[in-house]
Protein: Pectin acetylesterase
Amino acid sequence: MTLHGNELRVGPSNVALHINKRPKRGRRGGKESVSARCSTRKIINKNKSEAVECGSDFRRERAVGAIGEGTRLISENGAGSILDMDLFAVAKGAVCLDGSPPAYHLSPGFGSGVNNWLVQIEGGGWCNNATTCLARKNTRLGSSKAMVKQLAFSGIFSNKQSTNPDFYNWNKVKVRYCDGSSFTGDVERVDPATNLHYRGARVWQAVMDDLLAKGMNKAANALLSGCSAGGLTSILHCDKFHALVPAGARVKCLSDAGFFINAKDITGTEHIKAFYNDVVTTHGSAKNLPSCTSSTSPGMCLFPQYVVQNIHTPLFILNAAYDSWQIKNILAPGVADPHGTWHDCKLDIKQCSSVQLETMQGFRTQFLNAIAQLGSSSSRGLFINSCYAHCQSETQETWLRSDSPVLADTTIAKAVGDWYFDRHPFQKIDCPYPCDKTCHNRIFEDHFEA
Structure:
């Protein structure tokens, strides 16, 4: 680890931590402070994994695979350096919830990939009122001050040809998520009582402007992707992203675990519908949502099923039919389960009763009905497996590995690559749970995550 001018170089020569050389106030006087932190995933044994982000956030999970015991370590497969956007973003009002500048991580492309761009949007849910937004304000989901400086890349972000053959040498950008609205909000006024800034749409535009200036304006190939709330972002902003890139470029979008459906919870209450309505109202998102606002209420336009028909850019939907986030937060949120009947089931699908599994099969049916709105055009890609999972493109064990999930004997990496490069169309829907033995079903280890 060495300091070169404004950069702290860590490991490979093409990976650098960009430092904004501004005097720090307080105890350190005018001295600079330099820090580099990490994000890595370690396999404890073949059926258990632990994901750790050093710094502001700590999360544990176990991914249950289909093969036996054994110990191994998954390498970081490259890293992205966080870039400072103070100079122009803040002047445009493009800021996180707390007013700090937005940020993204960049790993430069190399070889034949220097003019290809993979822009991935971070996930992290949404905040729907001042109370929930204040709860995020001083975390990495509301402030760039709380974000790690160095972020490991794996899965679709791996820089190794053997583990990511189609995208390994592309320019890779991870846009950090700190606005709580899937980059749709834009409220000019800042309430002095909360000092909350609802500026997600401005953050989106500021980041895109910066990437265009860094070479994306010369892109030959570009892919906008995202996980969870970032996957929803990749749907909502898909056509806007396409419009930014040169006319002759191949431009497509990938949504990983971002197809959230409008479904009632186990009590028959429209919990997620009310939540999304509050998100749109709080963030002033209506004017930045796709054209479905002309035919329905703005809050409904956060549901992809009402938006995808009007998206013209090629779009790939990667989703588990039993998406763990949707089961926990749409089908059986805590408010609908005050006695915790669903607690163990939400922790581990193998703990679900026959009645609960029947309810989840009904949710799958609703999900498939919603996904049908995507249409059958070959420009639409579809990989819907029957796993209890959430986000499958960002980790090596689900993206491309010997034991990765498959549909029609095809890994997620191959399905996405074949679709992106027009080698073969891919539209596959799995058989119902528990038929798929290649799943990496998630097991949550604590009450907070459930």
